[in-house]
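thought: fold this chain, then report.
action: predict
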Amino acid sequence: FIGSEGTLGVVTEVTLRLLPAPAPQHTVAAFFTDVDDAAAAAADIAHRLLPSDLAILDRTALEVAEQAVPMGLEESTQAVLYAASEESGAALMARICGDHGAADVFTTDDARQAEAVSRPRSAMYEALEGRYAMIVEDVVVPLPAVGAYLGTVRRVAADAGQQVLTYAYAAEGVVHPVIPFDPTDGASAGRAAGVAARSCLLYTSDAA
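observation:
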């Protein structure tokens, strides 16, 4: 090898440490009739575990995803919580979701099934790309406040008559409001920008 000063060296000894293979991942998809219940379940999970994945899609995001990949979205479903962990962690997450009112909880260790049930996460963007411009906000809130912020976004969107999709990485308290608009329409673009700004301002004011 070549050292930092350009000198040549020869490796004569290498020390290796064997690590156990990672445990197989189990995917959980929990279907909620209330997005606040999904947010509360996510907060509970993040408080008790360190899942490798923990995300929430709201009803609007799921409806848009359904346009790209029809999956038979139930009318009562208002949010889906997606999570992944090893077997015992997944079992606990499924139980927590049930305790928080999940209407249905699906768990699998099959990679193909996991990919199929998680498909709306990418399909949401696929349905929008090429059809709309998007404002994608990146908002970090305290973990217990994810539900409150999602509620603020829904309220502002309803007041403005603006479609807003929310995708939350609940373990980190990161929420991505996705606001599609027509870039050729100044009113549409202005409304989208206004909703983005007002959501943050209202949440900050409510939390103060």
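thought: worth noting. The first strand starts at residue 26 and ends at 32.
final: tokens above.
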